[in-house]
Amino acid sequence: MSKNQNASSLILFILIPIAVGTLSSLLSGNMTLYASFNKPPFSPPAFLFPIVWTVLYILMGISAYIICQKGGAETEKALKTYVLQLFFQFFWSILFFRFEMYFTAFLWLLLLIILIIMMIYYFYKISPAAAYLQIPYLLWCLFAAYLNLMIVLLN
Asked: For the whole prediction, is pTM greater than 0.85?
């Protein structure tokens, strides 16, 4: 593959999770709802969420690109898990913000976290660097689970 093809592929891999996140956000509706909640300690300000998610989506895309470039027997399973967790990621904010199903969204997020852990495991077998790039995403989703559960309990 030429340098231009590699760069184009990398950009595409980065744009996919950004597009998934953007579309999810657009379909989620009332994102200002967050301001109305009784929030737990350590709740970040609302403006921080899109910044953090953009960085995480970029890391996710780079990580998936690395896995795709490595190839091998485990690549298909790793990338299928990546796509499945993106699916779960897509619907979390819709469940939470659009449908205001806070507890269901929490359970959905727990499934997402399990998928992220599986993805990291599969990625690690192919490329430890690609797996490490997913760690901030896992940590943020664990933090999101804390926030989600506390919003369920406090509201």
From this structure: yes
